[in-house]
Design a protein that fits this description.
This protein has 218 residues and is mainly α. The protein folds into 2 domains: 105 residues, no CATH class; 88 residues, no CATH class. It is built from 9 helices and 5 strands; from the N terminus they run αβββαβααβααααα. The strands form 2 sheets. A 3-stranded antiparallel β-sheet has the order 1-2-3. The two termini are 39 Å apart.
């Protein structure tokens, strides 16, 4: 179970790393996305959300057909368009459709994904609950970004290091190709913190054991 403190840390990190985007856009992999990095796999996914028209302060419900047209318009901006502008940012999609979600909906989607991710992480790493919080933060960042299958199958060397609690080795293997350097650095630093904490604990235990055996402490 996630502690309240850890949940708040995960939420704060994802809010900063992913940003809140109220409109649909294509992410760096070409997937239709909305909110705080929530992927919409289909028109049906989009139609479950309470979209409203921009500047409609009454936030009146949008017809399902309008949502479908907006989704397909964004999704159509794929191979050819992205080849011409591979680094097109989410901001450039603001005028593609006037449909929006509010911050409450984005937060709900983020929290639901965190809960699903927690269950997935416990399947990938049986001892997940015993990991240091900094390692849990790193893995939540990664699974939010690459998905369950991507984390499970795409980082075999890192996963082996994690299961053996070799945190520095895990840090070295956590690099993602399509993530900016600051985010990769942050993830590696989280693994590094765990290594530092556990090494301090080892040193303390060795000193304590030596001190007891030599009656330095009473």
């Amino acid at each position: 179970m996630l502690s309240t403190t850890l949940m708040q840390q995960i939420q704060a990190h994802l809010d900063g790393a992913e940003r809140l985007v109220q409109w649909m856009y294509l992410d760096s992999k070409g997937y239709v996305t909305v909110g705080i990095g929530t992927r919409l796999y289909s028109v049906a996914d989009a139609q479950t959300l309470p979209f409203y028209h921009d500047r409609d302060f009454a936030c009146s419900p949008v017809a399902l057909g309008d949502i479908a047209r907006a989704y397909n318009t964004v999704a159509a901006d794929s191979m050819a368009q992205r080849a011409r502008s591979p680094k097109r940012r989410y901001t450039s999609y603001e005028s593609t459709t006037n449909l929006r979600i509010d911050g409450g909906t984005a937060a709900r989607l983020r929290n639901e994904y965190i809960e699903r991710s927690y269950l997935a992480l416990k399947k990938i790493y049986w001892e997940f609950d015993s990991f240091p919080d900094s390692v849990k933060l790193a893995l939540f960042d990664m699974i939010y970004n690459v998905g369950e299958a991507g984390l499970r199958d795409g980082f075999p060397t890192m996963n082996r290091a994690i299961r053996e609690r070799r945190w520095l080795d895990a840090a070295n293997e956590s690099h993602r190709q399509d993530v900016d350097s600051d985010r990769n650095y942050w993830t590696g630093r989280m693994f590094g913190q765990a290594a530092l904490q556990e090494s301090k604990g080892d040193v303390f235990n060795k000193v304590a054991k030596y001190s007891r055996s030599h009656r330095l402490w009473r």
